[in-house]
Amino acid sequence: xxxxxxxxxxxxxxxxxxxxxxxxxxxxxxxxxxxxxxxxxxxxxxxxxxxxxxxxxxxxxxxxxxxxxxxxxxxxxxxxxxxxxxxxxxxxxxxxxxxxxxxxxxxxxxxxxxxxxxxxxxxxxxxxxxxxxxxxxxxxxxxxxxxxxxxxxxxxxxxxxxxxxxxxxxxxxxxxxxxxxxxxxxxxxxxxxxxxxxxxxxxxxxxxxxxxxxxxxxxxxxxxxxxxxxxxxxxxxxxxxxxxxxxxxxxxxxxxxxxxxxxxxxxxxxxxxxxxxxxxxxxxxxxxxxxxxxxxxxxxxxxxxxxxxxxxxxxxxxxxxxxxxxxxxxx
Length: 331
Known about the structure:
Layout: E1 4-7, H1 16-21, E2 24-27, H2 41-51, H3 57-73, E3 79-84, E4 89-95, E5 100-101, E6 111-122, H4 128-133, E7 140-142, H5 145-155, H6 167-191, H7 195-208, E8 212-215, E9 226-229, E10 239-245, H8 254-262, E11 268-274, H9 280-287, E12 293-296, H10 298-307, H11 314-319
Parallel strand pairs: 1-3, 10-11, 11-12
Antiparallel strand pairs: 1-7, 2-6, 3-4, 4-6, 5-6, 8-9, 9-10
């Protein structure tokens, strides 16, 4: 079975008209020079390292993979698509030529393969699942069989492969997947904080929630790291005493929670934060405590951070810089 590829027409689809007029797809990396003679991935990797020493290793690795695929994995007869963001249409066709290095046709896109374009498909006619698959930002990537089947059917004037009623569920599933991945990436950032930074992060979240905080100085914390209260002095209620343990590989047990509870005074409320989580027995200790005690693990901290991020101060944002991503309210 022939392979299937998506090749983006540059940033913002800037050369899609050239793709169509000249019946080709092309990629850049013109700084590498003529790579027609490159035969192995190792040879290309070395050339990439020499040409882009300022890039991070991961970026060079991904670029090497994409360029090598264009040189050696694309085959005559392979399905290929590219996108025109102005018309919201996908060009579809088949690879009709071997790799050619030519700087003349499309400036800065010298690596070229001829294509026989056979049709166009409106993005709005695709199911949500296919639109999501085609939405990757990589310069080129492989397409799965279901997406190819749907594009081919629509190009021939046939009905979509899936019923439109399924789109809403697929749309929500994709959203949940994106949120889940984002949550894990944010956890990765938080885990890399040192203990002092973790303490400041927790204090920043509490301030974003409307409390004023006092953070213990470095050294012995005498059973508390942060005091949060409406007045910042711990005189007004509620007064929350916070213990922060930033040991991602160490789960807090019942003795640690029991010790924390024992240091709380009358009218205190306790908040115990552990990036390594808590044992079942620790949760039991908190539940049976005579004063209100809440346990927060890493997932809880990240959840509160994202929930209140718009209200956190600049110092807290510096610790864990995040960027807002807008998502349609419905499909």
